[in-house]
């Protein structure tokens, strides 16, 4: 049995059954809730490793559940919703969701998103001291203590903003970060000019991380939403 416990918060019975069957088939432990009140009770009582959350619940909005959980826990939350507008995705991600899957979805996509989240969890659980001293993802290395970045053992010359962006993405490996979140973390504010500046800095950073157009892509763009650092298998 997989040690990861996943809470499924979904009021649609067929979809809930599909997700639970998928988890059971792949040996995940699971909990289930049909509404927000039960979900919050399960979260506080059992402290699951990952939450799969529908936004349109009968008693409260999923975004409000995310905000409540974030007042005391950083457990990964993957939203699964029929709402496909960028504004809905951004609102959920800004509230603290780690990922967003749009219905209808494939079982393979769901399992892939769960695996990405598990890898991020394992990195965090490996120990903060190790994470804060040295980060490695594929051929990318960041020495946080020295403030140096290497690609294939060659030091990269990054501007202070590029380095801050890279560190922010690396500390949130596999997680989609919205434009609002990034600009708040980097500049302490959000405006159209800040978002435009972010795109410029991100473009120059990506060129340094991927000097060869056919090389490894470390940063994924989510158009209209933000950016994610991809986990590169060694």
From TrEMBL:
InterPro entries tied to this protein: CheY-like_superfamily, OmpR/PhoB-type_DNA-bd, Sig_transdc_resp-reg_receiver, WalR-like, WH-like_DNA-bd_sf
Pfam families the record matches: Response_reg (PF00072), Trans_reg_C (PF00486)
Sequence ranges assigned to domain Response regulatory in this UniProt record: 5-118
Residue ranges the UniProt entry marks as DNA-binding: 132-231
Segments crossing the lipid bilayer: none
Modified residues (4-aspartylphosphate): 54
SUPFAM superfamilies reported for this sequence: CheY-like (SSF52172)
Protein's UniProt keywords contain DNA-binding: yes
Keywords: DNA-binding, Phosphoprotein, Transcription, Transcription regulation
Statement: the UniProt record of this protein carries the keyword Transcription regulation: yes
Phylogenetic placement of the source organism: Bacteria, Bacillati, Bacillota, Clostridia, Lachnospirales
Protein name: Stage 0 sporulation protein A homolog
């Amino acid at each position: 049995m997989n040690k990861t416990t996943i809470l499924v918060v979904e009021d649609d019975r067929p979809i809930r059954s599909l997700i639970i069957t998928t988890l059971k088939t792949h040996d995940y432990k699971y909990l289930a809730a049909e509404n927000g009140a039960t979900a919050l009770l399960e979260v506080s009582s059992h402290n699951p490793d990952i939450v799969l959350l529908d936004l349109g619940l009968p008693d409260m909005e999923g975004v409000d559940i995310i905000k409540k959980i974030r007042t005391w826990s950083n457990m990964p939350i993957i939203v699964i919703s029929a709402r496909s507008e960028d504004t809905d995705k951004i609102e959920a991600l800004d509230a603290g969701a780690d990922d967003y899957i749009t219905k209808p979805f494939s079982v393979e996509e769901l399992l892939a998103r769960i695996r990405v989240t598990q890898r991020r969890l394992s990195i965090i659980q490996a120990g903060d001291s190790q994470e804060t001293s040295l980060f490695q993802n594929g051929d990318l290395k960041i020495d946080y203590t020295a403030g140096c970045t290497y690609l294939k053992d060659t030091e990269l010359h990054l501007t202070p903003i590029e380095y801050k962006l890279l560190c922010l993405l690396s500390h949130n490996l596999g997680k989609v970060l919205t434009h609002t979140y990034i600009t708040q973390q980097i500049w302490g504010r959000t405006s159209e000019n800040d978002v435009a500046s972010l795109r410029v800095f991100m473009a120059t950073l990506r060129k340094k991380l991927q000097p060869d157009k056919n090389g490894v892509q470390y940063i994924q763009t989510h158009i209209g939403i933000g950016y994610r650092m991809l986990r590169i298998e060694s």
